[in-house]
TrEMBL record:
This is Hydrogenase formation protein HypD. It comes from Blautia liquoris. One of its GO terms (biological process) is protein maturation. InterPro entries: Hyd_form_HypD (IPR002780), HypD_1 (IPR042243), HypD_2_sf (IPR042244). Belongs to the HypD family. It comes from the Bacteria. The keyword Iron applies. Keywords: Iron, Metal-binding. It holds the Pfam family HypD. One of its GO terms (molecular function) is 4 iron, 4 sulfur cluster binding.
Length: 349
C-alpha cells in the first residue's frame, strides 16, 4: 500500500470512533509538525499521554532540590527542563534568584569533570527521567565508582513506562489503542507490550517519528480495530528490537530496583519507580520521601491532560494565564510537556 493510498483510507474512515493515545512527547510534536490530524477522518482521534518525565515529577522532589541548592556548600546539577517547574514554594529558577546554587548541564557525564574540579562542593544531580535516560545515570554511577568521586550524588525521580500505560488502560477505558513510546521502546523493546495488548485487548504499535512512520502506524491501528485484532506491531524495527537494548537494561539493573512510586497528578503507581539499590545508597542524596503533599497549582488540569481526559485547550488557563513564559503547571514547562507542545502549535490541531 502506498502512502497516498493510506492517507486516502485514513481520511475516508467512517467506522466506530477510534481514540489512539500517543504516549511520547516527541510523537506529539511530530504529529503537529506533520499536520497528521488534518489528514485523518474526524472519527480517528489522537490523544496525548503521560510520556513527559518532568511533568510527573512530584512537587516534594523539586522542594528537596531547592533545599539542597540553598545549602552554601552544595550545588544542584540539572537539565534545563527542570528549572522552571514549580515545587510547592517556587521553581529552581526563582530559587537561584534567592541565592540557590544550580548549574544546568547538557550531559550528566559533565558532572564528573565539575565534581573533580571543585572538591569542596557537594554536587547533587537531579536524575529525572524514564528508561531512556536512566542508563545514562547508570553510566554516570560507573564513572563515580571507577574515578572514586566522593562529592557527587543523585537525587532520583526515575520512572518506567509500562506501569503508567497499564494504569491508563485500567482507568481510562475510552482509549482504544496506543502508539507506543518510540524512545523508551528503543531501550525496553517491543515484546513488553504483548501482555498489555492481550490483557486490555488494545493494539500497541511502535512507531518512528517521521510523518510517514506515524501515518503507517495509525493505519495499522485502524486496520487492527476494523478486523477486531489487538496485537503488538513493531513498525520502528531499525531502532527498536523485540527485547530492547540489553546493555542499557543491564546498567539499569545493576544500580536500580523497582519500587512503588508517586506520579504527580496521578498518585502512587505500583512498581513504577527505579530507586538506587541498597548497595549504592551512598550515592543517593535523599530520594525517598515519607509523604507526598501532592498539589497541582490552582486551576491546573495537568492530571487530566496527561491521562488523556482533556486536550490542553480545554484547560481554562491554557494560553490565557498559562504560557511557556509564565507556566502554571509542569505540562507547560517541559519541551516534552503536552501543554507546551500544544501551545507552540496552537491553531494547528
Ligand atoms: Fe496546567 Fe497550564 Fe496545562 Fe492548564 S494549560 S493543564 S494550567 S500546564
Amino acid at each position: 500500500m502506498t502512502l497516498d493510498q493510506m492517507i486516502e483510507k485514513l481520511a475516508a474512515y467512517d467506522g466506530e470512533e477510534i481514540k489512539i493515545m500517543e504516549v511520547c512527547g516527541t510523537h506529539t510534536s511530530s504529529i503537529f509538525k506533520n499536520g497528521i490530524r488534518s489528514l485523518l477522518s474526524p472519527k480517528i482521534k489522537l490523544i496525548s499521554g503521560p510520556g513527559c518525565p518532568v511533568c510527573v515529577t512530584p512537587t516534594v522532589y523539586i522542594d528537596k532540590l531547592i533545599d539542597i541548592a540553598m545549602h552554601k556548600e552544595h550545588c544542584v546539577l540539572t537539565f534545563g527542563d527542570m528549572m522552571k517547574v514549580k515545587g510547592s514554594r517556587m521553581s529552581l529558577t526563582s530559587a537561584v534568584s534567592q541565592g540557590a546554587h544550580v548549574q544546568v548541564l547538557y550531559s550528566p557525564l559533565d558532572a564528573i569533570k565539575i565534581a573533580k574540579e571543585h572538591k569542596d562542593v557537594q554536587y547533587v544531580f537531579a536524575a529525572v527521567g524514564f528508561e531512556t535516560t536512566t542508563p545514562v545515570y547508570g553510566v554516570l554511577l560507573d564513572e563515580i565508582e571507577s574515578k572514586k568521586i566522593e562529592n557527587l550524588k543523585l537525587l532520583t525521580s526515575l520512572k518506567i513506562m509500562i506501569p503508567a500505560i497499564s494504569y491508563v488502560c485500567e482507568k481510562e477505558d475510552k482509549i482504544d489503542a496506543f502508539l507506543a513510546p518510540g524512545h523508551v521502546s528503543v531501550i525496553i523493546g517491543s515484546d513488553v507490550y504483548k501482555d498489555l495488548a492481550k490483557k486490555y485487548k488494545k493494539p500497541f504499535v511502535v512507531a518512528g517519528f517521521e510523518g510517514e512512520h506515524l501515518l503507517a502506524a495509525i493505519y495499522e491501528i485502524v486496520r487492527q480495530k476494523e478486523q477486531g485484532q489487538y496485537e503488538v506491531k513493531n513498525m520502528y524495527k531499525n531502532a527498536v528490537s523485540d527485547k530492547g537494548n540489553q546493555a542499557a537494561l543491564s546498567v539499569i539493573e545493576k544500580y536500580f530496583e523497582l519500587e512503588d512510586d508517586f506520579w504527580r497528578g496521578i498518585g502512587v503507581i505500583k512498581k513504577s519507580g527505579l530507586h538506587l539499590k541498597d548497595a549504592y545508597q551512598k550515592y543517593d542524596a535523599g530520594s525517598d520521601f515519607d509523604e507526598y503533599r501532592e498539589k497541582m497549582p490552582n486551576g491546573c488540569r495537568c492530571a487530566d491532560v496527561i491521562l488523556g481526559r482533556i486536550t490542553p485547550p480545554k484547560c481554562p488557563l491554557f494560553s490565557k494565564i498559562c504560557t511557556p513564559m509564565d507556566a502554571v503547571g509542569p505540562c507547560m514547562v517541559s519541551t516534552e510537556g503536552v501543554c507546551g507542545i500544544w501551545y507552540k502549535n496552537r491553531g494547528k490541531a
